[in-house]
Specification:
This protein has helices at about 1-20, 35-45, 65-80, 85-110, 110-125, 125-130, 135-155, 160-180, 180-195, 210-250, 260-270, 275-285, 295-310, 325-340, 350-375, 390-405, 410-430, 435-465, 465-475, 490-495, 520-530, and strands at about 480-485, 515-520, 535-540, 550-555. The protein is mainly α. It folds into three domains: about 1-340, no CATH class; about 350-465, no CATH class; about 465-555, no CATH class. It has a four-stranded mixed beta sheet. α4 packs across α6 (about 125-130).
Length: about 575
């Protein structure tokens, strides 16, 4: 048993290495969020300012610094700031989260339940996306998950030693340093709701709540105090009010969505495993009288607390509910183990519901194969859904056709892997071999994640990133004065490896040449009024995070001022990034 558990853990680690670490640093930054965090890491690395590094020398960071500290340490170890060093914390912590989920499943129900839960979590779309993205979300998630799970084991043991209780508060403090007070609030709220459901609030005495609260304040509050001392009112407004209070209670911070927003996003984020949600929910409901005995209650309270908390918030992003994914995966793992061993009640209607979920998975796989195969043969099967898409997504369909045509080998291998997974699905559903069904779905999702990470992502990045352009800009401009002109891009800033202020005539030295970075469309306007003083030197191949604008490099050797007919305010440097879902 122990040897099997160890070998399975090693296999899961290898799976995570393949899914998250393969080509981790190969894809250049092309979204708004990743280079925004990367510039903070660059500031720490180059200025040694660990408390409140200012992006571009004057912008207050949007999030606390735990992720950036980790990225900086990796950058020191690897010899410089890079895409790999900045994404490393997310990939490493995502792997830790998968292994924590596996270990919990093993401890509660056995190796099979733990392995199923871990594979479901590792291959869920939202988890794998956050694992390969240089954002703070995975750092927050794993710190919170560690706190959630550690409390579970403290409660199961009952006999809590002071140092063990204090470790729980250390995890809460780290979670707070990852993204703010929500890192401590959500686990604490979950614990209270669970103990209330168990009618065991007296257990709080074993957790040394008062001393623990001071420990959280010492860990997280010390940074907040120092940052407030350095940043003053601007820090208070940005990180405390906007990123926490306003983001929860008002729509001023962006990402406003309706209360039910997370229902479809949870389904999409865990697809195709989510096709089994209907029979899984029925099973959980039927087991409601034995939730506590089967170790389900805490996980259900955990899921409900996180889901309802973020649903009540005005600002919503699909990644916010990532901390509940391990709990959902664990419950599905326990259910799947019972299903495979025949201990789940298999009445006619219930079995037909499970079978229908399996056939929906099969249909999803077949439709995906048909769509990709049709594109490869020159047809346009996706044209059926074109009228239903946002105009921006409609414009991306031709890119998809080009990706299929440009990577025939990758799609051939994916098709072969998918065909095998479909065969397992068909046989498994027909003969009720649930291990085969699980294996088929696992193979399908692993193939899909690899295809997205190693084919789709690099292709999209190549059309949008400013990295090649900025490499030429750095070579041309050297350390000469450079300004953003009525534009701003975090990726361009990061790849410049310097600070680039917004254009201000007061900053221009008479007779000294300088460079401007502006949108290509803006240059066409400027050229009509300043053609004799300014020269277009280069323009980007990439069209930016929103696939809208090429950047242009403009130069003057005379230190001339820019003449514009109608001044336009500079682009908002902290404009919220839209969700991908």
């Amino acid at each position: 048993m122990r040897q099997q558990a160890v070998l399975t853990g090693v296999a899961l680690t290898v799976l995570c290495l393949v899914l998250y670490w393969w080509g981790l640093g190969d894809v250049p930054f092309y979204t708004k969020g990743e280079p925004r965090e990367a510039t903070v890491v660059w500031e720490i690395y180059t200025t040694n300012e660990w408390i409140l590094p200012l992006r571009n020398g004057h912008l207050i960071p949007s999030k606390p610094p735990l992720f950036h500290w980790l990225g900086t340490l990796v950058s020191y170890a690897s010899g410089g700031v890079s895409e790999f060093s900045i994404r490393f914390p997310s990939a490493a912590l995502a792997t830790v989260g998968v292994l924590l989920t596996y270990g919990t499943g093993v401890a509660l129900w056995g190796v099979e339940a733990g392995a199923v839960a871990a594979v479901i979590l590792a291959t869920s779309f939202e988890w794998s996306r956050a694992a390969t993205t240089a954002r703070v979300d995975m750092t927050l998630t794993v710190c919170m998950v560690a706190a959630f799970l550690f409390f579970l084991f403290l409660y199961r043991r009952k006999d809590v030693r002071p140092r063990e209780a204090f470790l729980f508060y250390v995890l809460l403090g780290l979670a707070t340093l990852a993204k703010g007070p929500v890192g401590a609030i959500l686990p604490g709220l979950t614990v209270l709701c669970f103990l209330a459901a168990r009618r065991d609030l007296t257990f709080l005495r074993h957790l040394y709540v008062i001393v623990g609260g001071f420990l959280v304040l010492l860990i997280a509050g010390s940074w907040y105090g120092l940052a407030l001392w350095q940043g003053g009112y601007d820090f208070f407004t940005k990180q405390i009010m906007k990123e926490n209070v306003l983001r929860f209670f008002t729509s001023d911070a962006g990402h406003e969505h309706p209360f039910y927003y997370f229902l479809p996003n949870l389904f999409l984020g865990m697809a195709p495993w989510s096709f089994f949600f209907p029979p899984f929910v029925v099973y959980i409901y039927r087991q409601r009288r034995v939730w506590a005995e089967k170790e389900y209650l805490y996980l259900i309270v955990w899921i409900a607390t996180v889901f309802l908390f973020y649903s009540a918030a005005k600002s919503k992003r699909s990644v916010y509910i990532l901390p509940l994914y391990p709990a959902v995966a664990l419950l599905i793992g326990a259910w799947w183990q019972e299903l495979r061993h025949g201990s789940t009640v298999m009445s006619g209607p219930f079995f037909r519901l499970i079978q229908a979920s399996g056939y929906f998975c099969l249909l999803f796989a077949l439709v995906t194969i048909a769509a990709i195969g049709g594109q490869a043969l020159g047809y346009d099967p996706l044209g059926v859904i074109r009228p239903l898409l946002h105009p921006r997504d409609q414009s991306n369909l031709p890119m998809f056709t080009g990706i299929v045509a440009a990577h025939p080998t990758a799609f051939l291998l994916w098709s072969a892997m998918t065909a095998g997974s479909v065969s397992l699905l068909v046989l498994g559903i027909h003969h009720r071999y649930w291990g085969w069904v699980f294996s088929g779905l696992a193979a399908f999702t692993i193939g899909a994640v690899l295809l997205v990470n190693n084919v789709f992502q690099p292709t999209v990045a190549a059309t949008r990133t400013y990295r090649p352009f900025m490499e030429r800009v750095v070579t041309r401009a050297g350390q000469a004065p450079m300004f953003f002109f009525q534009a701003f891009d975090n990726g361009a800033l990061y790849y410049s490896r310097r600070r680039i202020p917004q254009y201000d005539a007061n900053l221009v030295q008479p007779g000294v040449g300088y460079f401007l970075l502006m949108r290509r469309s803006k240059w066409e306007e400027i050229a009509k009024l300043n053609a004799e003083n300014f020269v277009l030197l280069d323009e980007s191949e990439g069209t930016g995070p929103k696939d809208r604008h090429k950047l242009a490099l403009v130069h003057t050797a005379k230190g001339a001022y820019v003449s514009i007919e109608e001044p336009v305010a500079p682009a908002d440097e902290d404009e919220p990034e839209a969700d991908a879902l």
